[in-house]
Amino acid sequence: GSLYDSVMKCDVDIRRDILENVLLSGGNTLFPGIAERLQNELQDLCSSRVRVWAPAERRYAVWLGGSILGSLSTFKEICITKSEYEDYGPKIVHRKCF
């Protein structure tokens, strides 16, 4: 599936917010023109405004976010075991993290 397909699977009430806040992260997003191409391709599929953010530090954004999450005092409380996931499925994420 594509990014567009994933957005369309989300609740209709949050799709606009998602499409206005597409945040690129990781090394593969450093290809020249990727942000503009994604912006144009999504805009062609959507009637609402699309905004793609491509911060300069995106190469390390995932690592940085993970390191911040891991340093939180509440980190152990939001960890999900394999057993919990098998018992509750994806809903366990909402139960423990939100």
TrEMBL record:
SUPFAM superfamilies: Actin-like ATPase domain (SSF53067). Pfam families: Actin. It comes from the Eukaryota. This is Actin, plasmodial isoform.
